Backbone:
């Protein structure tokens, strides 16, 4: 055995031993979860959640799938099986999106047990999306629509846009050009939230 090989073998053995005991070189703190990833998905809907039924004859929303910012798969139909979903189509470079984001983030926190907000971003770099999510304290899941297929499914041409889907998947309302938080809150109370 050559001396260089023995040193490399000892270093590998030491690293394996440290990893097995939970030790590491550097900071032991776990990395924070990726903003907009699976950690932002809601838990089960509260028991007895009383929601307004979707009007009869409402068209069905496109039941698309995608990957969250941390790579976790998500199916919108799984989310609206339990409660209504609000899709927020945005980009990190959209000024109007940024102007309205604080109100949307607050709305998501206020109604987190009743309604799921899901961001859908396209034409953006993942690092720019992460910066945006952290700067604006976005606490809801965000789908990276890398090829724009989800945007096309919902006929979104430019950001911002907002779409409300009822529990069960009925398409209730959309706002090309986005909507302010107060108007969206009033519409949620009228369309889906208990009276």
Residues:
């Amino acid at each position: 055995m050559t001396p260089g090989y023995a040193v490399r073998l000892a270093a590998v053995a030491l690293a394996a031993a440290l990893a097995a005991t939970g030790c590491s070189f550097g900071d032991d703190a776990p990395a924070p979860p990726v903003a907009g990833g699976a950690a932002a998905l809601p838990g089960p809907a509260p028991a007895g959640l009383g929601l307004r039924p979707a009007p009869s004859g409402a068209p069905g929303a496109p039941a698309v799938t995608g990957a969250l910012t941390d790579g976790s798969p998500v199916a919108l139909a799984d989310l609206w099986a339990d409660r209504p979903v609000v899709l927020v189509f945005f980009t990190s470079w959209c000024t109007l999106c940024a102007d309205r984001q604080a109100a949307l983030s607050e709305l998501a926190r206020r109604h987190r047990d009743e309604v799921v907000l899901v961001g859908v971003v396209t034409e953006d770099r993942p690092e720019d999306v992460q910066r945006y999510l952290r700067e604006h304290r976005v606490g809801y899941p965000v789908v990276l629509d890398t090829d724009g297929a989800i945007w096309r499914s919902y006929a979104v041409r430019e950001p911002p846009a907002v779409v409300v889907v009822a529990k069960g998947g009925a398409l209730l309302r959309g706002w090309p050009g986005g909507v302010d938080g107060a108007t969206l809150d009033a519409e949620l109370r009228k369309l889906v939230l208990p009276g």
Summary: The chain has a mean pLDDT of 85. The beta strands are 65-67, 73-75, 85-90, 116-121, 142-144, 161-165, 171-176. The two ends are 78 Å apart (CA to CA). The helical segments are 3-20, 76-80, 95-110, 126-135, 149-153, 181-191.
